[in-house]
Amino acid sequence: MNEDELLDLLTLQLTPGIGPVRLTALLDRFGSPAAILRAEQTALGEVEGIGPRIAQALRDPVHRETAQREYGRARGLGIAVVARGGPGYPPMLADIPGAPTLLFLRGGWLPEDAQAVGLVGTRHPNAYGRRMAAMLAGELARRGYVVISGMARGIDGVAHTAALEAGGRTLAVLAGGFDHLYPPEHRPLSQRIMAQGALITESVPSQEPLKGLFPARNRIISGLARAVVIVQAAEGSGALITATHAAEQGRPVLAVPGPVDEEQHTGCHQLLRDGATLCRGVDDILEEIGGLQPRPNVTPVRERTGSPTAAPPAAPAPVAAVPRPVVKLNDEEQRVCTALEKVARSMDELVHETSLPVPRLSTVLMGLQMRKLVRQLPGNRYEWSG
Q1: Buried residues in 342-368 as b, exposed as e (16+ CB within 10 A)
Q2: For position 220, what pLDDT does the model report?
Q3: Mean pLDDT, to the nearest integer, of 57-65?
Q4: CA distance 57 to 16
Q5: What is the CATH number of domain 331-384?
Q6: 3-state class of 260 per DSSP?
Q7: Torsion of CA 189, 141, 74, 305, to 10 degrees
Q8: CA distance 173 to 191
C-alpha cells in the first residue's frame, strides 16, 4: 500500500462518525478509499449508516490536512503505519470484529508475535497479584512466548517488566498516541519495550489517552493474543472488558484465583463461575492453547542484542488438548443454546427468542463463549458450537 492510499485511509479514520463498520459499508459501495473521498455528498448519504451529516464531514478538506500532518509526525518519529489487509498488519487482528483500520507501531510486528499471550489486571494489585503476574510473564517468556498487555499501572507494567527481564519479547497496546505515552512514569519502560518488542496503537500521534479509548484498546490486546489471562481484578475492573472481548473473538479466557474474602479478586472469581479456565500457572495456559508451539530454538532478545544471557531452554513438548467435561446449563443458558441449536442468530433474534434483556443476554453469551459452547460469527451473529 503506497503513501497516498495510507493517507486516504487516515483521512477517513479522522472523519467524525467513521469507524470500522461504516468504513466497510463505504468500501462495499465505492470500492476504494480514494473513490469514497471523490464521491458526491448525495451518493455518500445514500450508504446505510452514513446520512447527510457524516456525508458532509467526508467532503470537508480539513480531515485531509489533519491526516497529512499526523502522517508526517508519525514518519518523523519512526512510527510504521500499517493498514488492515496490508503488509505488516497482524493477521490474527485483521479477523476480529471491528478490527482497526490502521495501526501505528514502533518496534515492528514479527511472525513470532502471533504466539502472544495476554496478561492483564488491576492497576492496584496487592503483593500476590504482582507475584503471579511476574511469575506468569517471566515463565512464558522463558518458554518462548510473547507477552502482550496494555502498559497500564499495576499488573500490566509488572507483566511487561518480567517478560523483559526474562530476556523475552513483549508487546504493549496503547490507548492514545505516541506523543502522549501513558502513564508518564512508564516512559522508561516504553523504551525497553521498543527495544525488545513493540508499542502498538490505533491512535494518531497527537491523540491524548482519553478515558473512552481504553475499552477500545482492550479489544486489540485480546485480538493479538492466543489466550487472555486475567491475573487480578475486582468487580467492575477494566480488565474484565478485555475478557469480554476475548470471549467474543473466540480466544480462551483464563483467570487466576485468589482469597475469596478479598475484593481485589471478585472479578476473577466471577469469570471462573461464568466458565473461564482456572489459571494456577503457565502449564494451565499452555494446556488451554494445546497444539500451539513456541517458536523453535528461541533466542532471548538480550542475546540477539549482544548482552550476556543464559542459553535458551528447550522448547516444551506440545500439550495435548484436554476434552472438556460435560457442563450443566442454567435456565438462561439453556434458552440461548436451544435458540442456537439449529440456526445462527443475531443479537436481536436472540432477544426475541429468549426474552432476555440485552445486558443479561450479553453476559450469558460471554459465559457460553468462554466455555466454547457458542461462537460469534461476522455480522454480530452467534452459533452453537458445543
Answers
A1: eeebeeeebbeebebeeeebeebbbbb
A2: 96
A3: 94
A4: 7
A5: 1.10.10.10
A6: coil
A7: 80
A8: 14
CATH 3.40.50.460: does it fit domain 111-288? Answer: no
pLDDT tens across 132-173, in order? 999 999 999 999 999 999 999 999 999 999 999 999 999 999
Task: Name the one residue in this structure whose C-alpha cell is 470471549.
Answer: 247
Q: What ranges do the domains of the chain cover?
A: 3-106, 111-288, 331-384
Distance CA 256, CA 237 (A): 14
**Helix %, strand %, coil % of the chain (to 5):** 45, 10, 40
Going by their DSSP bridges, the two strands 116-120 and 146-149 should be labelled as: parallel
Pairing of strands 102-106, 80-83: antiparallel
Written as nine digits, the cell of 212 is 473512552
The angle formed by the CA atoms of residues 111, 112 and 118, to the nearest 5 degrees, is 120
Q: Under a CB-based contact definition with an 8 Å cutoff, are residues 158 and 121 in contact?
A: no
Q: What are phi and psi of 118, to 5 degrees?
A: -85, 130
Q: Interior CA angle at 344 toward 338 and 347, to 5°?
A: 85
Peptide bond into 205 cis (omega under 30): no
Using a cut of 0.85, tell me whether the model's pTM lies above it. Answer: no
